[in-house]
Amino acid sequence: MDKNTRKLRNVDINPCTEESDASHKCLDHYNYDKSMCSVYFQRYKNCRKYWHNIMVQRRRDGVKPEMPTAAERLEMLDAVGGKPY
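That's the Coiled-coil-helix-coiled-coil-helix domain-containing protein 7 sequence above. Prediction below.
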């Protein structure tokens, strides 16, 4: 696995691996007919937007690391009652 692929698969760096995997699995299942997977694409897009906003806010507040770790993200999601996206 090359460096960029490892980085994208790292759950501490990429908070949306689950949504990404689901969209790829949908594409595989429907023979790459993108119209059948729009719900999965939207879920991934919402995930990226949500965590990007969190990252920007943490950067503004001077919190390091800017992206919460996987354990911190689970706690944050539990506090709001599950995935808000």
